Amino acid sequence: FLIPLLPYIIGFLLLLLLISVIVTIIVGSRSGVATGGYYAMKCPEVTVIFTDKANGYEVTGTKTYPLEEYVAGVVAKEVGPLVSLEVYKTFAIAARSYFFANETNCTIESSDRKQVFRELTETEADKLVIQAVEETKGKVLLSDNQLFSTQYDAFACIAKDDNYYTISQANQKLPIEWIDSKINKESKPEWFICNGKENLKEHHGNGLSQYGSLYLATELDY
Asked: Residue 8 — very low, low, confident or very high, per pLDDT cuts 50/70/90?
Protein backbone atom coordinates (compact mmCIF):
# COMPACT_ATOMS: atom_id res chain seq x y z
CA PHE A 1 0.00 0.00 0.00
CA LEU A 2 3.07 2.27 0.26
CA ILE A 3 3.78 2.14 -3.46
CA PRO A 4 1.24 4.88 -4.35
CA LEU A 5 2.84 7.05 -1.61
CA LEU A 6 6.41 6.44 -2.76
CA PRO A 7 6.70 9.62 -4.88
CA TYR A 8 5.49 11.67 -1.89
CA ILE A 9 7.95 9.95 0.46
CA ILE A 10 10.85 10.54 -1.93
CA GLY A 11 9.79 14.16 -2.37
CA PHE A 12 9.61 14.64 1.39
CA LEU A 13 13.10 13.16 1.89
CA LEU A 14 14.52 15.37 -0.87
CA LEU A 15 12.93 18.39 0.80
CA LEU A 16 14.56 17.47 4.11
CA LEU A 17 17.92 17.10 2.35
CA LEU A 18 17.52 20.49 0.70
CA ILE A 19 16.65 22.14 4.02
CA SER A 20 19.69 20.49 5.63
CA VAL A 21 21.99 21.83 2.90
CA ILE A 22 20.54 25.35 3.18
CA VAL A 23 20.92 25.38 6.97
CA THR A 24 24.50 24.14 6.68
CA ILE A 25 25.34 26.91 4.23
CA ILE A 26 23.72 29.58 6.43
CA VAL A 27 25.37 28.38 9.63
CA GLY A 28 28.70 27.98 7.90
CA SER A 29 28.54 31.52 6.49
CA ARG A 30 27.78 32.91 9.92
CA SER A 31 30.16 30.94 12.07
CA GLY A 32 32.94 30.17 9.62
CA VAL A 33 34.36 26.74 8.97
CA ALA A 34 37.99 25.91 9.64
CA THR A 35 39.61 23.23 7.55
CA GLY A 36 43.12 22.48 6.37
CA GLY A 37 44.54 25.59 8.01
CA TYR A 38 42.19 27.90 6.14
CA TYR A 39 39.02 29.61 7.29
CA ALA A 40 35.76 30.08 5.41
CA MET A 41 35.59 33.69 6.48
CA LYS A 42 32.45 35.44 7.60
CA CYS A 43 34.06 38.89 7.82
CA PRO A 44 35.25 40.25 4.47
CA GLU A 45 35.47 43.60 6.26
CA VAL A 46 36.55 44.53 9.78
CA THR A 47 35.30 47.49 11.80
CA VAL A 48 38.08 48.75 14.06
CA ILE A 49 37.22 50.59 17.27
CA PHE A 50 40.04 53.02 18.10
CA THR A 51 40.61 53.78 21.78
CA ASP A 52 42.63 56.06 24.04
CA LYS A 53 44.33 53.96 26.72
CA ALA A 54 45.38 57.05 28.71
CA ASN A 55 41.71 57.94 29.16
CA GLY A 56 40.44 54.56 30.24
CA TYR A 57 40.20 53.15 26.70
CA GLU A 58 37.76 55.87 25.67
CA VAL A 59 36.51 55.29 22.11
CA THR A 60 37.97 57.87 19.74
CA GLY A 61 36.50 56.61 16.49
CA THR A 62 35.70 53.65 14.25
CA LYS A 63 36.61 52.76 10.68
CA THR A 64 36.06 49.75 8.44
CA TYR A 65 38.80 48.01 6.45
CA PRO A 66 39.02 44.94 4.18
CA LEU A 67 39.96 41.89 6.25
CA GLU A 68 43.47 41.38 4.90
CA GLU A 69 44.22 45.12 5.15
CA TYR A 70 43.25 44.88 8.81
CA VAL A 71 45.56 41.90 9.30
CA ALA A 72 48.40 43.81 7.65
CA GLY A 73 47.74 46.81 9.88
CA VAL A 74 48.00 44.66 13.00
CA VAL A 75 51.27 43.09 11.84
CA ALA A 76 52.67 46.53 10.97
CA LYS A 77 51.83 47.89 14.39
CA GLU A 78 52.68 44.85 16.51
CA VAL A 79 55.92 43.69 14.88
CA GLY A 80 56.61 46.16 12.06
CA PRO A 81 60.00 47.34 13.38
CA LEU A 82 61.39 43.78 13.34
CA VAL A 83 61.49 43.74 9.50
CA SER A 84 61.50 40.02 8.67
CA LEU A 85 59.29 38.37 6.07
CA GLU A 86 59.12 35.11 8.05
CA VAL A 87 58.20 36.94 11.26
CA TYR A 88 55.58 38.95 9.38
CA LYS A 89 54.09 35.79 7.85
CA THR A 90 53.93 34.11 11.25
CA PHE A 91 52.25 37.09 12.87
CA ALA A 92 49.83 37.50 9.96
CA ILE A 93 48.49 34.02 10.72
CA ALA A 94 48.44 34.79 14.45
CA ALA A 95 46.66 38.14 13.98
CA ARG A 96 44.09 36.64 11.61
CA SER A 97 43.42 33.75 13.98
CA TYR A 98 43.10 36.08 16.96
CA PHE A 99 40.64 38.30 15.12
CA PHE A 100 38.29 35.48 14.18
CA ALA A 101 38.41 34.06 17.70
CA ASN A 102 37.71 37.42 19.35
CA GLU A 103 35.61 39.53 16.98
CA THR A 104 32.01 40.54 17.67
CA ASN A 105 29.91 41.11 14.57
CA CYS A 106 33.13 41.60 12.57
CA THR A 107 34.18 44.38 14.96
CA ILE A 108 37.26 44.52 17.21
CA GLU A 109 38.99 47.04 19.43
CA SER A 110 42.43 48.36 18.56
CA SER A 111 44.23 48.30 21.91
CA ASP A 112 46.60 46.29 24.04
CA ARG A 113 43.50 44.59 25.44
CA LYS A 114 43.00 42.97 22.04
CA GLN A 115 45.56 43.61 19.31
CA VAL A 116 46.77 46.99 18.09
CA PHE A 117 46.19 48.22 14.53
CA ARG A 118 47.53 51.09 12.43
CA GLU A 119 47.01 52.13 8.85
CA LEU A 120 49.70 51.16 6.36
CA THR A 121 52.29 53.49 4.88
CA GLU A 122 54.57 53.39 1.82
CA THR A 123 57.67 52.26 3.73
CA GLU A 124 59.64 49.22 2.60
CA ALA A 125 58.78 47.47 5.88
CA ASP A 126 55.04 47.94 5.30
CA LYS A 127 55.40 46.67 1.73
CA LEU A 128 57.02 43.56 3.16
CA VAL A 129 54.10 43.23 5.60
CA ILE A 130 51.67 43.33 2.68
CA GLN A 131 53.67 40.60 0.91
CA ALA A 132 53.55 38.44 4.04
CA VAL A 133 49.80 38.88 4.37
CA GLU A 134 49.24 38.03 0.70
CA GLU A 135 51.37 34.88 1.02
CA THR A 136 49.33 33.70 4.02
CA LYS A 137 45.94 34.97 2.87
CA GLY A 138 43.09 33.20 4.66
CA LYS A 139 45.40 31.02 6.72
CA VAL A 140 44.69 30.47 10.43
CA LEU A 141 45.78 28.22 13.29
CA LEU A 142 43.61 25.24 14.18
CA SER A 143 43.47 22.93 17.16
CA ASP A 144 41.46 19.72 16.62
CA ASN A 145 40.13 21.37 13.46
CA GLN A 146 38.74 24.26 15.52
CA LEU A 147 39.88 27.86 15.29
CA PHE A 148 42.64 28.50 17.83
CA SER A 149 42.74 31.82 19.69
CA THR A 150 46.38 32.89 19.51
CA GLN A 151 48.37 34.96 21.96
CA TYR A 152 51.71 36.71 21.62
CA ASP A 153 54.07 38.84 23.70
CA ALA A 154 57.06 41.04 22.96
CA PHE A 155 59.75 39.92 25.39
CA ALA A 156 58.59 38.05 28.48
CA CYS A 157 62.00 37.71 30.11
CA ILE A 158 62.11 35.44 33.16
CA ALA A 159 65.88 35.10 33.73
CA LYS A 160 69.23 36.57 32.74
CA ASP A 161 72.82 35.38 33.11
CA ASP A 162 76.10 36.68 31.71
CA ASN A 163 75.33 35.54 28.18
CA TYR A 164 71.61 34.99 27.70
CA TYR A 165 68.14 36.28 28.37
CA THR A 166 65.62 33.49 28.95
CA ILE A 167 62.06 34.18 27.86
CA SER A 168 59.00 32.35 29.09
CA GLN A 169 58.06 30.86 25.72
CA ALA A 170 59.62 27.37 25.86
CA ASN A 171 62.41 28.83 28.03
CA GLN A 172 64.01 30.04 24.83
CA LYS A 173 67.46 31.62 25.30
CA LEU A 174 68.36 34.78 23.42
CA PRO A 175 71.95 36.02 23.42
CA ILE A 176 72.34 39.31 25.28
CA GLU A 177 74.67 40.62 22.59
CA TRP A 178 72.08 39.87 19.90
CA ILE A 179 69.24 41.54 21.82
CA ASP A 180 71.37 44.60 22.54
CA SER A 181 72.08 44.90 18.82
CA LYS A 182 68.32 45.13 18.17
CA ILE A 183 67.40 47.55 20.96
CA ASN A 184 68.65 51.01 21.80
CA LYS A 185 70.49 50.31 25.05
CA GLU A 186 70.21 53.94 26.13
CA SER A 187 66.42 53.93 25.97
CA LYS A 188 65.20 50.38 26.34
CA PRO A 189 61.41 50.22 26.29
CA GLU A 190 59.52 49.49 29.50
CA TRP A 191 58.55 46.00 28.41
CA PHE A 192 62.22 45.06 27.96
CA ILE A 193 63.08 44.99 31.66
CA CYS A 194 64.01 41.48 32.84
CA ASN A 195 63.04 40.89 36.44
CA GLY A 196 62.31 37.19 36.55
CA LYS A 197 58.85 35.84 37.17
CA GLU A 198 57.69 39.30 38.28
CA ASN A 199 57.94 40.29 34.63
CA LEU A 200 54.96 38.12 33.83
CA LYS A 201 52.67 40.37 35.86
CA GLU A 202 52.99 42.90 33.04
CA HIS A 203 53.77 40.52 30.19
CA HIS A 204 51.77 37.30 30.21
CA GLY A 205 54.41 35.40 28.25
CA ASN A 206 51.87 33.17 26.51
CA GLY A 207 51.95 32.21 22.87
CA LEU A 208 54.46 33.57 20.37
CA SER A 209 57.38 35.77 21.36
CA GLN A 210 58.04 38.68 19.00
CA TYR A 211 61.79 38.84 19.62
CA GLY A 212 62.02 35.09 20.03
CA SER A 213 60.49 34.62 16.59
CA LEU A 214 62.89 37.19 15.11
CA TYR A 215 65.87 35.29 16.52
CA LEU A 216 64.58 31.97 15.16
CA ALA A 217 63.95 33.50 11.73
CA THR A 218 67.11 35.56 11.28
CA GLU A 219 69.72 33.59 13.19
CA LEU A 220 68.49 29.99 12.96
CA ASP A 221 66.78 30.19 9.56
CA TYR A 222 63.38 28.99 10.78
From this structure: low
